[in-house]
């Protein structure tokens, strides 16, 4: 049924082929048709249904696929040296679902990367260099029918001649036309020229990309107490400790701790431990939680050895939801919601302010409110934050922790005041406010490089983070040091150097709430697992589930339900800090289920502290595995393709042998015992997340 060969053809020969095929169909060869087949142009379908990669940032006018024009809406379609009067211009990655209903026999098109002149770059902002528009990389054109690949081109480059797609679609109900960048390539303008369906029955109809229901896979926790969270926490001798024992179950719960080290005390009603441990050492304790439905215990260790973040952080950060609009009241709403929604009972802890709490000297900026620092150099916060210490106390009062954002440059990414030449002073100010977490963002540091210095030089890249570490070591408070410089200079290779000791480092640029962004970043983390470990984690950026917005107006994430399962599963496997970037107060049962599955979170918080890496890849199907403390493996089967597909993982790929118990972590259900391999059908853009343990 498939004609897979792709070979360049001139448009004229394709037209001749169409005529022949039509003639053949008319003469009655092939399956019986209800009426004389006609040629229906792809460009006559409702092209608003075609997914088109967007350019120009969040505020740009969205691009839509173009009938009989290139995606720029002006030029004719051009592939290689040829120009076409008909067809569809799109931008890769791109996708269209077409309902054929068994009414069509053939799909024909000439495909290739658009070869019109590149668009003019947007005018540069004041003082900035003009940006160059990058040409598209090589693109793959695919035609899928009812879950099977009917056609796939080789990677096609800009300037290459058009390639004929000639696919028998007899009997196909749903056809997918997809263009995607080849591995590691940029997207860009791409064309389905002279694309037609030969149709004798139902007319082809463009349809919405089907979205699965928001299925809640996880059973709710029972009424008896269950103690969640990590099995250890790292603190520094002599520094303030705050640890909230996360417990689910019917309230009220009374807490107790056996073997609590000297200097710490427990609030029995709140389950919050505070105080200081004077002596260096490891302090094993037993947590107990009791309510009218039962009692739970958990072994736990306070590791007072000065290393923080022995498991990756769980929390919230303001950026992906509010952007610059973050305020004291919104931060308090977040803290309230983390408690009210029960997230705190599953180990969620940090309430982190991102950019937007500082002032600026920049004219015309609403946050220019006079001096950015007091006479003694102390930073002055903007009017949205009347009392930072008060905010810190409020957050701590709930058993949560407080994070803040600054950078080593004179200004932040938003042009607001940052910590250049005030590092020790600012970090001390933060400590006075009760800050427990600093995100330290490069951004403005580029402006203070000396002549001859560039971001290609490793010593230059390291310097601000070494200076930051020196400053932080002078502050007598446990503060997580989160490096943000977008992965430059392979930061994962040196972010844990003795003179930097980052607790995490961003491995990528900024995430956004699209499948392309999230899955592109997530599945690019291949080979990084060896750089992560207790106290130092890879950070592929914050979460984009729920209501996001990067500003005052919020909207639902652009990720589908299955894509959201992929997001949480993959980030859990990667042992990335999990920082929610949505309005927690508006989280519904589906979203809460995504982030409160205690078996999934137990993988994230696993004491061994090993991150997952990719163990198998077959086209768009991938398997990632993470070894756990108890000798089992957390394994994610992922399907990045456009149709449900069976994914198999071999024991050999996992480095295990013999009988294994496989447990579905999202459903919290054993699937049985398996030998040699495990397979499961994995939905389009979806995942199956299992724990594989040797049978005892
Ligand atoms: C970017 C950073 C984002 C966010 C933003 C704030 O550089 O990657 O996560 O912090 O700055 O301006």
CATH architecture designation of the largest domain: Alpha-Beta Barrel
Ligand identities: beta-D-galactopyranose
Low-pLDDT residue spans: 1-12
* Main sheet record: 8 strands, parallel
Q: How helical, in percent, are the residues? A: 10-25%
**CATH topology descriptor of the largest domain:** TIM Barrel
The shape, in one word, is globular
What is the C-alpha radius of gyration, as a whole number of Å?
28 Å
Strand order in the sheet with the most strands: 29-28-27-26-25-24-23-32
Q: Any idea what the CATH superfamily of the largest domain is called?
A: Aldolase class I
Instruction: Indicate the proportion of strand residues.
Output: 25-35%
End-to-end gap:
49 Å
The helix count comes to 11
Helix/strand/pairing category: alpha+beta
CATH class of the largest domain: Alpha Beta
Calculate the mean pLDDT score and round it.
94
Number of strands: 40
The domain tally reads 4
Describe the structure.
With 696 residues, the chain is α+β, with helices and mostly antiparallel strands. It folds into 4 domains: 2-121 and 132-207, NPCBM/NEW2 domain (Jelly Rolls, Sandwich); 226-304, Immunoglobulin-like, CATH 2.60.40; 314-611, TIM Barrel (Alpha-Beta Barrel), CATH 3.20.20.70; 614-694, Immunoglobulin-like, CATH 2.60.40.1180. 16% of the residues lie in helices and 30% in strands. The protein contains 11 helices and 40 strands. The strands form 10 sheets. It has an 8-stranded parallel sheet with strand order 29-28-27-26-25-24-23-32. Strands 1, 2, 5, 7, 10 and 12 form a 6-stranded antiparallel sheet that branches. Strand 3 (77-79) and strand 4 form a beta hairpin. Helix 8 (561-573) packs parallel to helix 10. It binds beta-D-galactopyranose. Beta-D-galactopyranose is lined by residues 319, 354-355, 405, 412-414, 441, 443, 484, 510. Residues 319, 354-355, 405, 412-414, 441, 443, 484, 510 line the site of beta-D-galactopyranose.
